[in-house]
């Protein structure tokens, strides 16, 4: 079983650089309060590292994701 990460946008992307807005889009986030569950890969970790001030990250088990 692969670990999974629940990523939630907690701050607005207004006033951020275009690359940071693109990173939020790549993470599947379009607005404050929106969440997305991602597989914990080096690619996802790299994207998360680019915008840590705009998101919160929680590690979830696969049981929590399915229900």
Report what the structure shows.
There is one protein chain. Helix content is 34%, strand content 25%. The protein has a single domain, classed as Ribosomal Protein L30, Chain: A. The protein has a 3-stranded antiparallel beta sheet. It starts with a strand and ends with a helix. With 67 residues, it is α+β, with helices and mostly antiparallel strands. The protein has 3 helices and 3 strands; from the N terminus they run βαβαβα. The mean pLDDT is 93.
Question: How does the SSE layout of this entry go?
Answer:
Elements: E1 4-9, H1 18-26, E2 35-39, H2 42-50, E3 55-60, H3 62-66
Antiparallel strand pairs: 1-2, 1-3
Instruction: State the CATH architecture.
Output: 2-Layer Sandwich
Structural domains: how many: 1
Tell me what portion of residues adopts beta-strand conformation. Answer: 25-35%
What integer is the average pLDDT? 93
Terminus-to-terminus distance: 16 Å
What attributes characterize this protein structure?
single chain; 67 residues; alpha+beta; Ribosomal Protein L30, Chain: A; three-stranded antiparallel sheet; 3 helices; 3 strands; 34% helix
């Amino acid at each position: 079983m692969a670990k999974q990460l629940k990523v939630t946008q907690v701050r607005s992307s207004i006033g951020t650089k275009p690359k940071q807005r693109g990173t939020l889009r790549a993470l599947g986030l379009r607005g404050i309060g929106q969440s997305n569950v991602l597989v914990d890969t080096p690619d996802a970790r790299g994207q998360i590292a680019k915008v840590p001030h705009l998101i919160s990250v929680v590690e979830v088990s696969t049981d929590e994701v399915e229900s």
